[in-house]
Design brief:
It contains twelve helices and 13 strands. With 401 residues, the chain is α/β, with parallel strands linked by helices.
């Protein structure tokens, strides 16, 4: 984790500023200060532990030059704290349960630095779904980095689709901050940095671990400006107004309350800024009803067993997809994906506890209730059968969560 990230993250429980206490850091590398915005941090310099103001211009290159591998992040406004493990901040309420052994070790190592606060927060079932955490963790563990992401393996294609989605030109991303809320494998997150943006990928699952390991190979020289955080879209652990663009693709419909999740990420966008959300499209009854009935059973199975069943069902599912495409007079490229890729796609549909679907009119209404302006349907043509996507602009006093 770059120290720069401390300026962007906040306590997910109260929104308080977090103080980093380092347990282990990697060696520094040469980074020209001119390569980063000066000052990059808007409020507080973690390196010098003092506010950023007109009288203090920090050496931003120093913050980007060193990776902090382990530590604790203590809230300055409430008694909560969170672990930093393998270079990734774990800003989730259930960190005590998920990382018990690591926390015990970090607390012991950092005791002399007075880093540990009193406790981690209690898990709130209305904002945290254990099944989603386990399900998506397994899904991205099975994913291999040479796999196609949702059957798309062309990096240039996905980068171009990202620009279409947020309704922006490439030059508009230079120097911008971007949040990818629900980043999954992190491939898209890392490649966005090529436009000159600073990008933060957040996911509820441990997929952020592999994403962080692979960011250098995916982002190249721009890896300095790619960060990953384990966090919950229902309680996003970021400073209000920290991002020029907030992007969430295929995530919010898997939360206990889609619109609540949507309103949780809105305050993270600057004014003016842009918010993009992609959700599952409501299916025809002859497809949607059987899917809901089947999911009522599959979403209760142990994730490991369900993935095995999905893998076994791939040939039958592929045959069904081909048959439906033929009846519709359409073409399908499902046969171009590997069996594992198709199994992951099935698992993604049948495993999560929550899966809500929407019409374009419903999504537009959600954006308009939030008082976003210039709301546009930006659903990609190659995803229109299954997805619906909208983008809107934030304005002062107009995008409050």
């Amino acid at each position: 984790m770059k120290r720069r990230l401390v300026d962007l993250i906040r306590c997910p429980a109260c929104g308080g500023r977090l103080v980093l206490r380092v347990v282990a850091a990697e060696g520094a590398e040469e980074v020209a200060t001119a390569a980063v915005a000066t000052p990059a941090c808007a409020e507080f310099c973690s390196l010098h532990e003092r506010p950023v103001d007109a009288a203090f211009r920090p050496d931003c290159g120093a913050c980007y030059a060193r990776d902090v591998r382990e530590g604790l992040l203590a809230c300055t406004e409430c008694p909560l704290y969170y672990p930093l493990i393998d270079g990734v901040p774990r800003l989730i309420r259930n960190a005590r349960q998920e990382y018990a052994a690591e926390l015990a070790r970090l607390e012991g190592a950092a005791a002399s630095a007075d880093a540990a606060a009193e406790r981690l927060g209690e898990v709130d079932a209305s904002v945290f779904d254990k099944r989603s955490n386990e399900s998506f963790g397994l899904q991205w563990r099975e994913y291999q980095y040479d796999d196609k992401t949702w059957f798309k393996d062309d990096v240039a294609l996905r980068q171009g689709e990202f620009l279409q989605s947020i309704d922006a030109a490439a030059e508009q991303l230079r120097g911008a901050t971007v949040l990818d809320a629900g980043c999954g494998n992190g491939k898209l997150t890392a490649t966005i940095a090529a436009y000159g943006a600073e990008v933060v990928g957040m996911d509820l699952s441990r997929s952020v671990e592999r994403a962080n390991v692979n960011r250098a190979s995916l982002a190249g020289s721009r890896a300095l400006f790619v960060h990953f955080v384990q966090g919950n879209v229902m309680e996003p652990p970021f400073r209000r107004g920290a991002f020029d663009y907030v992007h969430s693709s295929g995530v919010l419909h898997h939360t206990p309350d889609t619109e609540r999740a949507f309103r949780s990420i809105l305050p993270l966008a600057r004014h003016p800024g842009k918010v993009y959300v992609q959700l599952y499209r409501r299916r025809e009854p002859w497809v949607g009803v059987p899917n809901r009935l089947l999911r009522a059973f599959t979403s209760r199975l142990p994730p490991g067993l369900l993935y095995y069943l999905c893998y076994a069902a791939v040939p039958a599912h592929t045959a069904a997809v081909r048959l439906v495409a033929r009846l519709r007079g359409e073409r399908t490229r499902i046969h171009e994906a590997s069996r594992r890729e198709r199994a992951i796609s099935l698992f993604d549909n049948y495993s999560p506890r929550y899966q809500y679907r929407y019409t374009p009119e419903e999504v537009r209404a959600m954006f308009e209730r939030a008082r976003l302006r210039n709301v546009r349907d930006v659903t990609l043509a190659n995803e229109a059968r299954h997805m619906v996507a909208f983008v809107g602009e934030t304005v002062a006093n107009g995008a409050k969560g």
